[in-house]
Amino acid sequence: MSSPLTFQPVLDRIAAEIEQTPGRGRPADYIPALAACDPRSFGMAVAELDGTVYGVGDWRQPFSTQSITKVFTLALDLAHEADELWEHVGREPSGNPFNSLVQLEYENGIPRNPFINAGALVVTDRLHTQTGDAAGTLLDFLRAESGNEHLAINEDVAASESAHGDRNAALGHFMASYGNIGNPVPALLDAYFRQCSVEASCADLALATGFLARHGIRADGSRLLTMSQAKEVNAVMLTCGTYDAAGEFAYRVGLPGKSGVGGGIIAVVPGRCTVCVWSPGLDGHGNSVAGVAALDRFTTITGLSVF
Amino acid sequence: MSSPLTFQPVLDRIAAEIEQTPGRGRPADYIPALAACDPRSFGMAVAELDGTVYGVGDWRQPFSTQSITKVFTLALDLAHEADELWEHVGREPSGNPFNSLVQLEYENGIPRNPFINAGALVVTDRLHTQTGDAAGTLLDFLRAESGNEHLAINEDVAASESAHGDRNAALGHFMASYGNIGNPVPALLDAYFRQCSVEASCADLALATGFLARHGIRADGSRLLTMSQAKEVNAVMLTCGTYDAAGEFAYRVGLPGKSGVGGGIIAVVPGRCTVCVWSPGLDGHGNSVAGVAALDRFTTITGLSVF
Amino acid sequence: MSSPLTFQPVLDRIAAEIEQTPGRGRPADYIPALAACDPRSFGMAVAELDGTVYGVGDWRQPFSTQSITKVFTLALDLAHEADELWEHVGREPSGNPFNSLVQLEYENGIPRNPFINAGALVVTDRLHTQTGDAAGTLLDFLRAESGNEHLAINEDVAASESAHGDRNAALGHFMASYGNIGNPVPALLDAYFRQCSVEASCADLALATGFLARHGIRADGSRLLTMSQAKEVNAVMLTCGTYDAAGEFAYRVGLPGKSGVGGGIIAVVPGRCTVCVWSPGLDGHGNSVAGVAALDRFTTITGLSVF
Amino acid sequence: MSSPLTFQPVLDRIAAEIEQTPGRGRPADYIPALAACDPRSFGMAVAELDGTVYGVGDWRQPFSTQSITKVFTLALDLAHEADELWEHVGREPSGNPFNSLVQLEYENGIPRNPFINAGALVVTDRLHTQTGDAAGTLLDFLRAESGNEHLAINEDVAASESAHGDRNAALGHFMASYGNIGNPVPALLDAYFRQCSVEASCADLALATGFLARHGIRADGSRLLTMSQAKEVNAVMLTCGTYDAAGEFAYRVGLPGKSGVGGGIIAVVPGRCTVCVWSPGLDGHGNSVAGVAALDRFTTITGLSVF
Hints:
Beta-lactamase, three-stranded antiparallel sheet, 14 helices, homotetramer, 8 strands
């Protein structure tokens, strides 16, 4: 891989292979907006460190980012308060489903990591306290990094998430009972559901993830995170980024990655590029079937696995 | 124990012994109204099947009934919908603290029994659906059985419970996420916190519990529960009535009983009488220290243990 | 129920009803000796306090006592070391299947109660240390109380248990790792499997259980347990005696009872009589289907429930 | 890092820094042989792909490899039976301590990954079945890769492990009860304790790990694992290699690594080199305090983190 020009044929080849693959899983069906997605949709983009973007398929179509936003709120909160955060959320794999309450109870309301729902709620709660508007801060950041001023929150999706949000409400109140939530739980949930409802395309997200491939440097050259913090976020992505299938993702794809139930996955090749893939059909762990397959092919073809 | 006249000296003797006992535990301190209770308070009452009541100490002073009300809402809901209830809550001991979420998750939102908080929320939810006003239905019943029209809900305590209600809110939303709650969670919590805030005295509660000693017959001679249902409630009290110390209560006291964090405990001698004791200082399981000791003495002196 | 003469017609009536009942469950099939039992077998015996025995059906046929023996080893160990035992095993319902390791781990190798397998292993271990031969001590006791010198251990069954004993071996080694086992684990397992392989009839077991109805007094009039200890054993039977269906047994039958996977169940009416029923077909909890049904009928017909 | 010659000054600098660091943790004390280690011992070695080795401190002193051997038995079993293994052990982080039985019970005797003790027992059991002598196969491999014919099993340590092996015996019998162990449990435990008792130096282990940096190629140029399998082992090391501190290791060190309670840690820089560090003092997770610190410095100084 000596030349960036070679990414386009790689993407074309992957798209052609995915096209031939039967079985795409099923879109998330807990809210109508996600259930309505066409499982045949597929898009993939690669962004180089300098912002050059390559893409294939539906790579410019916005989709619901959902849990992918947890990476950005984590980075933004670390930028604001640094290690203080780690007193309120851990950095270890959970070994349990993403919305489980069991471990939370045994560990006194401190979530295992920032990417299970409980941990993401803590991160959003703290970012909301730091900035007064967690979802707005996130949106500003994504717009700046992607250069796309049209990125927006889908308020219908946010309302739909809220209407089906009992499990997250339970997590929020449960952690509040341990004193680990600073905002009123309804306000936190509102911020969280709006955060999850940001819509962006593969191109937008590949660009927005660039600071993790650049060891903390934003698109405009300013520093968001220290090199150590950027590596930390990548490490947490690799060990905890794909729900309870983090191990499988690590050995199949071999890159730090984060998935969302909207069918998107972002991945980082440190020092080299970022990738975003989207296809709404999910496997039993909540990860995009075609998305994982495409990233598996990507690292196999390019040799760009960290292992 | 051939004559009811002998209960008064028994109570006097127990009160004298308790008076000599150092160490009463500490009142619940999660809300101010409970924390303000004098741990030296002690009252005890015995009601015969015919409504004759004997008492000692602070037996006529109202206190916060709290979880004791779970017995009455259980009976009232069974009277309304019978076995339908048991599809939504189990009847087995939980082996976990009263407000744990762990077992609830492993068992898909069906609480182990009606006396852990999760189970009591389900019972109140269903009674609220049946009657439109769970707390009001409870209050009417307690007034009728005790003959005390002055029984009331302490709305300050209810508000205070609500302000410290994150754990119960978590339980409610969590079960709602499994489809096991019919009312909106905030409405359910309001009903539940008002139910817990009913105030009554030892005399009131000993009388109100009488239907369980009379195998289902109310004070006015009408039937609330079938004999089988009344035995069922007694059995659930014996195996699950005192949080995660049900085993200890069973072998020390040997009667179906139910405690509350207000420091009250009711107990049933089937076919013979009911007992209510109150002292606000609690042990580590949330049971009244002097209350358990007094009941232990009661069954030892009278031989009225079921074992 | 004023006269002992009335037990015979009660038993005859129950046997006739059970005869008409379809569905007996399936015998335990983890070892051949149990799997070979005829699920249509049914016997039931009642023993009065004075040793008068009534019976019906296969009430004199020996069967594999299995977990029923846990009641006797518990009583025998309490007779030897009294409350010392309770530092090594709890007295609370477990809320988990009888051979679960989960709670054991969270509670540092102290089993919840003497009737789950882990707790029974602790009791046998301690009795073995006290007497040098736990299974022999048990056998001597059962022979003396039943007056049947022919009671014996089925060594083939014991060998078969041992060959299928990995789960119990795991429990033994696990507790040994916490320092809660005094004998070498293989020696303990040998004693335990021999204990479980004692064979006795309904008549034998109803008589042998008599000391629990007589508040601690043996058949020869000597005292095995204090009144308080006898009530304690009854309380533990009621709250923990039928695996994870203790609650269901309590509200259906309403007596302290203990079941075994051989299909036997013993039950105690304190101060009145003991009952033993046997039918090898089991329900999903490991309790005899016809046995529970027969005891349910027994308390319904006689009114002898403790509730 | 363009020249291999630069590793020596890196190692010298790290050793000098570690020398100044107070607090080394405490050696494992569950067996005398480990407890007797001097916590001030420190050695570190780096092996290039071609077998060139650099070292500092006690890098040639043999120590007890313990859990580090789990990497080699995993690789050897994969070489024998490939993906068949993954039907008997998972590849996901466990989120629980290395010797926990909880998850094992919820997941029916299938361990979460090959590096918790339960998983390592399954791997050894299968390798033992494949080869007839798991520990011997391991020893032959380590001798061949390190070129050190003197590598040996410390039989005293193996005997000592066996004498303190109740927890592992519990794991073995527990999995056997689910049918997930093929050999008799005592034979498996003997093989496992002997495997853990292999002694080797930092130099030996850095060389023996080389096949993971060479994507599956052994020292003699033959292939042990496919490229995909080699990456898989690296991925499992990164996500599961350091007990319940895998996340912390990933973000501090950023390399696939595996620790042992003897105080050793091996780490892989794919395509570049391997590292082994040894210092017997452990932290609360069972990882070498100075070892983790030295690897942290190594990736910081050289920039050779995978992130």
